Amino acid sequence: MSLKLHGISMSTCSKRVGIILHEKRIPFTLVPVDFASGQHKSPEHLKIQPFGQVPILEDDGFFLFESRAISKYLATKYAALGTPGLVPDFKDLKAAAKFEQASSVESFDFEAVASPILVDGFFAKFKNPAHIPDQAFINKQAETLEGKLDGYERILTKQKYLAGDNITVVDLFHLPHATLLPAVLGKDLLDNEKRPHVAKWWKELQARPSWAAVKDGVNSTERYD
Amino acid sequence: MSLKLHGISMSTCSKRVGIILHEKRIPFTLVPVDFASGQHKSPEHLKIQPFGQVPILEDDGFFLFESRAISKYLATKYAALGTPGLVPDFKDLKAAAKFEQASSVESFDFEAVASPILVDGFFAKFKNPAHIPDQAFINKQAETLEGKLDGYERILTKQKYLAGDNITVVDLFHLPHATLLPAVLGKDLLDNEKRPHVAKWWKELQARPSWAAVKDGVNSTERYD
């Protein structure tokens, strides 16, 4: 029985899970959620996602929300498929701890800083075409992000990926939002010669076939050839 | 050999780990980091915390940063001590997935919304006593937080805690920041009769002896009587 991903083809959080589905070569059916008609705030949807968001995974009666939790679940359950080692062996206490450390870095040193830039500078205009971004706020967030990327450079000078020398879901989690930043900031802060290790890491992530498969929209995938 | 926590007695993130150390009854030594002299931005500190933050755990030569990662590591390593079940059995794939889901809820539906309120409304004045909070921004964030707490109510109507019917580190992670919100907002959004399950959960968390032990500052603890 095929996995179902309740989501939106162009949603960045649906793409985050889409990347992992493609890395692990897991067939799935995208079940569209109709935001235009308010389906995401309906009682039926709130039963499976209490915050009225997407995506939600449906795996033979088991429902799970939050894109990062879904990704980690899939990478654990399908450890033997596709790209190996996207999550650590949780019996290895120190490897699991370094993975959790990297997860928090992505959440609080990247996403928490980058997301407000995108909310005001990119997503707001879709809800309200007359929205004028707060440039002073965006500049301040971008400056904070530069400082955070200096921390990323310190990490990636010592190891190839955020959790160690193996690529994990945490590295891939950056793709949906970091690729949108240049549209707001006019330049790609992650691709800067003053942080050569970050730039190399970032170029490699963008070249993954999994990103090519979902960046223009997540679609149901019956099989991988 | 005693664990070392490199941190600051009054730092909210150091308190987050302090709660877990007390719940698990783990002796530890607080090693103060001197922010006043800029120690957190020194080359020595950046080697163990690439973003120049606190806290950092030192466990017999193993260094780990990020308060949530440290907390999960300690709750896993010392599963047999103190409060049981603060992290799930990671061999139980679905229980682990529900725990990850709850972790993301805390990170993105609570922390990402609450933290900007505290940064502008509470912490900024310590760096710059002349800082005037942006009340319009704070009001907008508070409105978003109210919507998120409606999601919390939907979860806690169905189960006792965020990851299921057992308290986990994720519930406890709310304490350091959520207890500061009333000082900015003039009321406690988490203690509201229109969300009775959230209010009950929140009162119970604040009554934990572990919170009483660290709320006025984290201190080295040689033993638990």
UniProtKB/TrEMBL annotation, chains A, B:
Coiled coil: none
Enzyme class: transferase
Pfam family, one: GST_N
A cellular-component GO term for this protein: cytoplasm
Entry's EC annotation: 2.5.1.18
Superkingdom of the organism of origin: Eukaryota
Similarity-based family: Belongs to the GST superfamily.
The protein's name in its UniProt record: glutathione transferase
